[in-house]
Request: fold
Amino acid sequence: MTALQTYLAALAPGIDIVAGCAGMSEDQLCAAGAPNKTARTLLTLADALFAPTSFTRLQRQAVDAARDRAHPLPTLEVIERYAARAKTKRDAWRLRVELCRTAADTDEMEKLARKKLRELNPPTPPRPGVRIRRRKDAPWTLAITGPSSLIADLESSLDEDSPLDSVAELFSSTAASAADRPTITTNAIITLDELDRIIDGDGEEISIQLTNGARISGADLVSRTLAERGLITLVHPFEGAVNLYRTERMASEKQRLMAAAENPVCPWTDCNYPADKCQIHHLQAWQHGGDTNISNLATCCPYHNGVNDDDPNAPPIRGRLVRRRGRVVWQPPWADTAPTDT
Reply:
């Protein structure tokens, strides 16, 4: 018998091979000559088909059917891969039994298993709404789910050659009345040195952070009608926010806008939640004597605002926002709790 014939013959009694692995460890299988990946696959099948379970009758039926049908190892792998994705253990065992009783090669078994699993786990109907996926330093995604008539109407307004431009025109069309269009109050944060470069015509190389989480170039900012797009806050590189233009807000609203200008997204590490949707957080909590001054305020997403360690005298759990060298940063619970420069 050739090596190929020996290999193919060994694949045939798949369930007996799996039964022989029951109770063994990966190290033992590897010591017996099995490659790491093969050892893990065999142990996964052994745990599924021979480990103690409360569904002993279904387990016995599945093993007997796999032996009667002489399913090879690759077919047993397919059966287990789909059975493991059933929502309940009972459904998983019923699917194993049904598939093990079916005479099919590996490809046919995969098609059948996929169909049966879809019947067990029907897809959840999509819910109408709008979902936004924000990515750091990458394009964002706006997904709209709604009645077919609405989506069809939107699609009819798209230009196949430039769909993104037609979407932008659809949302900002001057044909819409001012009453129908939302008022945008996002901040564009520009340092004074960046403003000089924009005025000199070098705006294309400057990336400006908006408090709604987006970024635009200086050239894009100049090309827009600022009164329609939002507000501009000038920020000195060392002194912080200098002044707020294009607004006549009450002091509390001005503080919110200036806090958003300083932190366009939630300052917690790796959080990209936009400031326009953030809450205003007291670095020194109000109940612990903190003032509502701009130096003591920061934007913070609802989740991190809720888990922030507000009490400086309590054992730290999740860390807290502090001001270090003029910047608001997250202080981890294991960090040195030196006085902050608020």
